[in-house]
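Q: How would the structure tokens look for this protein?
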Amino acid sequence: MAERVLKTSDVIGVEARIPEGHKHLRTTITLADGEKISLQEATVAAIVRAYIHVKTHPTATSLTLRGGTPESAKEGFAAWQLIEDDG
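A: Here is the predicted structure in token form.
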């Protein structure tokens, strides 16, 4: 699959909200071509975690997260997580 890079000029709006009847934040990105991408709170949190790691670490230039089920999932958390990939 080809990589698509979204430029700031491709994005015409971002809405972060907790939908009625839900407990978790959902972030919707609206693109200039009309496409909308909605991200669950855990996905945004993982992206932010990776961003902060790379921007603040004195030597790190990347961090890869992969979807998987950790051996010891915490109570109340989804089984599927975006976790750091050591490989």
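The beta strands are 11-17, 26-31, 36-40, 65-68, 81-84.

The first helix runs from residue 41 to 56.

Upvote if useful.
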